Amino acid sequence: MTSELSDNSSKTSCADDRPFTCSVCNMTFTLSSHLTKHRRTHTGVEPYPCDICDKSFADNGQLMKHRRTHAVEKPYSCDLCDSSFAQIRHLNKHRRSHMGDKPFACDACDKAFADNSHLTRHRRTHTGEKPFACAVCDKSFADSDGLTKHWRWHTGERPYPCNVCDKSYADSSSLTKHRRSHTGEKPYSCDVCDKSYSQSSHLAKHRRTHVTEKPFPCDMCVKSFTDNDFLTKHRRTHTGEKPYPCDQCDMSFAQSSNLTKHRRTHTGERPYACDMCGQSFAVSASLTKHRRTHTGEKPYPCEVCDKSFADSGSLTKHRRVHTGEKPYLCDICDKSFAINGNLTKHRRIHTGEKPYLCDVCDKSFADSSGLTKHKRTHTGEKPYACDVCEKSFSDSGTLKKHRRIKHTQPDQPFLANVSKDVITLSNA
What are the C2H2-type domain coordinates in residue numbering (predicted)? Predict the structure, then answer.
């Protein structure tokens, strides 16, 4: 195993409050001990071996946590279930889960807790106190667990390995969620209908389909929400606030979940694997959508017409056909759009931006569809075939025009379905 990196250039004057710099990646630290731990993510050094099994660890805290897996002696048994504990205070806490005893009451709201540490943690939701500060960046956390998980973003540490595949995770809850991709377990059941989910967040999202009351209205638009957290997130679409910055690039995000997804563009992590074809995804929602390409499931029906969709986003876009809603407003002119992507394309008319470059010639285009059409002038591809005659065309618009001129009789409706193996046009 590679030895610890040398201390040359470990100190720098570039930042007085973080004088210890990693010579491999230039990350800075306030304490030399933090730099020492961080270096092990580069070297792979694990100087803390377990004296019971053959595992080793990068720091002593991990070793201490691991040793508890060997500590089988748990002399304090619960007389109501088969749980056992190493300490009597842990047994006493556990018993309260059977008795419903919650002697520690919050003086700011009506919540109560089985032990005092949970009350202390809860109180911080009222006070906003975040006493656990990261030594590398400016983030703070309400509890030590939050800081520990966050710290692993800096170190790259993933101490929770899956025993089925070769993936590992920064925290135990992520490993638990991942394991369900192997077992198919869905422990979160809806108490209104018969649906079950592998994650509590998915169940919470589903439950809102049963709830009609939305007591949290937005004071900037006409939307209302089932809880205050969703209202807070929604308001950021009006204010433009993005309080979650990426520590590897200059991007910021309105929601922490979007930051988590974005970070995977840096790490290349794709933790969500399809059990039908093996394709993996960075985001669980992408896996869910992908699975429907295998099953053909379209669980989102339109309540106005008979169409159904594979994902809620497609249903939302479709609904605007019926409502005429165009929520995406151009800030340069007075045009509005039903789909955000169309607004993005439209803005390029004002800016002149053409980010889609042809790799054959020097032409560039404002949108990907323009580039796709243009490439056919190089390849000669004509994927849009007329089902009446034998002509083919490079784009759907030209096919539509051809059929209207050549094959539509007066007072005869224009048929919009293209049949041929190459492609099918629907609602051209």
Answer: 20-47, 48-75, 76-103, 104-131, 132-159, 160-187, 188-215, 216-243, 244-271, 272-299, 300-327, 328-355, 356-383, 384-412
